[in-house]
Amino acid sequence: MERTLLITGCSSGIGETCAFGMKARGWRVFATARREEDLERLSAAGLEAVYLDYDEPESVEACVSQVAAATHGRLDALFNNGAYGQPGALEDLTRDVLRRQFETNVFGWHDLTRQVIPLMRAQGHGRIVQNSSVLGLVAMKWRGAYNASKFAIEGLTDTLRLELRGSGIHVSLIEPGPVYSKFMETALKHFEENIDIEHSPYREQYLARRRKLSGESRPSPFKLPPEAVLKKLVHALESPRPKPRYFVTLPTHIMAVLRRVLPTRALDIILDKASDSN
Ligand SMILES: NC(=O)c1ccc[n+]([C@@H]2O[C@H](COP(=O)([O-])OP(=O)(O)OC[C@H]3O[C@@H](n4cnc5c(N)ncnc54)[C@H](OP(=O)(O)O)[C@@H]3O)[C@@H](O)[C@H]2O)c1
Question: Residues 18-43: what's their mean pLDDT?
């Protein structure tokens, strides 16, 4: 029987690459997007495109119903991937802007996850993979909202893995560092829309940050293509012993070690510098 996989955020970047990559490996892929033109493009390319916006609970429910109806209630795997980064210093983030970051990156993921678990329980197996980030492992300046959302995903996922032990449902985290996608472009949009750059005490740092996000400064030497995430997803979905965590990119490997071995004060010195240079 064909293995089935639901991936969110397939309009671009990691989600798109993983959707096509897993289809090429023989999986039946349900790929979600929000815009009509993206849904049409994904369908035309042979994927089963489904509308899902994490910010709309009714669309999460409708997506799960649509997938379940198409597969006679079976779903082998879920890859929670769709998300965005809201830049800005914490003191410039309103309650509403922070809430929106969590609505998409955390509550939407939780909602979708808990709705697919009953399908997996009924069939006695399943894989849930969460696309977290190196920023789910360490914090950086000007990224507090996104940092907090990924730290929340780490906490929820670690708990879920413990709770689902013995159920046949495996839970993994992927921790990418910098990956080529539309992520920076979208973050810039959210930065300009929601942060009062000109009147902030951080104006100077923001102007530098804006140049980074708009790609005016030098590219990161550690940045990898989204295929690097696909490679880990393949292991998480197809290996008989999926890992709890998969690190992608050198910065993730380095930060994962540093946060274990360094005292907080020493780690802060490194993260302070890294925040402005990345
Ligand atoms: N790129 C990196 O350097 C990097 C590093 C670490 C982790 N990640 C993680 O990788 C994942 C994918 O990001 P990416 O790099 O591929 O960026 P991307 O190219 O910007 O893709 C983000 C995807 O998420 C979707 N999305 C945004 N808001 C959504 C919502 N409310 N409901 C459903 N989908 C939504 C976007 O859809 P629309 O086109 O409709 O907005 C898009 O398909 C994210 O979880 C991100 O945190 C990325």
Answer: 98
- Give φ, ψ of 218 to 5 degrees: -65, 145
The residues lining ligand 1, judged by C-beta closer than 6 Å to any ligand atom, are 8-15, 33-35, 52-55, 81-84, 104, 108, 131, 133, 176, 178-179, 181-183, 186
CB 28 within 8 Å of CB 3: yes
Judge contact between 82 and 140, C-beta under 8 A: no
The predicted structure's pLDDT at residue 220: 79
CA 130 to CA 172: how far, in whole Å? 6
Strands 169-176 and 126-131: parallel
Q: Based on the structure, what is the number of domains in the chain?
A: 1
> Which amino acid does the sequence have at 137?
L
Question: 54, 84, 146, 246: which one is catalytic?
Answer: 146
pLDDT at 231 over 70: yes
Q: Is 202 a catalytic residue?
A: no
Which sign does the torsion angle of CA 246, 252, 253, 259 carry? negative
pTM, entire model: 0.98
**How wide is the angle at C-alpha 252 spanned by C-alphas 251 and 255, nearest 5°?**
80
Spell out the residues 6+ positions from residue 247 whose beta carbon is closer than 8 angstroms to its own: 175, 253, 256
Instruction: Write the CATH number for 234.
Output: 3.40.50.720
Cα distance between residue 211 and residue 208, in whole Å: 5
Q: Which domain holds residue 222?
A: 4-277
Does residue 216 surpass a pLDDT of 90?
no
